[in-house]
Amino acid sequence: MIAIIDYNMGNLRSVQNAFRLLGKEVHIESSADNLAKYDKVILPGVGAFGDAMDHLKSSNLDEAIIEFSKTDRPLLGICLGMQLLFQSSCEFGHHEGLGLIDGEIKAFDTKRFDQALKVPHMGWNEVFVNGGDLFDGMSEEFYLYFVHSYHVVCDDRFVAAKSHYGYEFVSAVHKENIYGLQPHPEKSHTNGLKILENFIKL
Residue 118: left (phi > 0), alpha (psi -120 to 50), or beta? Predict the structure, then answer.
């Protein structure tokens, strides 16, 4: 069984519908006590990092996710959900994350070049894959759909894919049984569905 964590910070139905297109029924789960019974867990998310952590903590889902990650069963973070897997974020102040992967979340440096970057980074962008189970059977370069103003900064050993928006940034991560995607696979048509199909097979 696959659970999509409901903590009032994401469009859960679009993720659920993407799995239905693949013939896989997934469950929307808001109870920390129930999380351990699932074979795989997805942490989605849209919004601010600090608010998301507050919601997770208020329902003890933060501790349940951390405990689930120790079971070697697959855990997938999507967009804000991927960012929450890391140690901290500077979004609207300093906020501690789940700390499952070493690294931090930083804003796009809009003044890094002569022409300022527009944020959020929104729309289709190319993903350059380093490898990993989520991209099995896919090319090394393809497009996915992004919506974000902050990005992960972490050690290269955790980087599964990179993209470019003004400068290079991390678009996917992998550490043992923990996976993360900055783009939205549920909004990325064929390529996104292939990634979710690979997650089902893990």
Answer: beta
Owner of token pair 């990650």: 69
Cβ distance 44 to 113 under 8 Å?
Answer: no
Question: In the annotation, is 186 catalytic?
Answer: yes
Question: What is the model's pTM?
Answer: 0.96
List 29, 91, 186, 197, catalytic entry: 186
Given a cut of 60, whether residue 114 has pLDDT beyond it is: no
User: Torsion angle, CA of 100/104/105/107, rounded to 10 degrees?
Assistant: 180
Q: Would the pLDDT of 140 be above 70?
A: yes
Cα torsion for 155, 161, 165, 166, to the nearest 10°? 50
Q: What is the CATH number of domain 2-201?
A: 3.40.50.880
Q: Which among 29, 79, 148, 174 is annotated as catalytic?
A: 79
Instruction: Tell me the per-residue pLDDT of 57-94, one tens digit each, with 9 for 90 and over.
Output: 999 999 999 999 999 999 999 999 999 999 999 999 99
Indicate which residue of 121, 151, 184, 197 is catalytic. Answer: 184
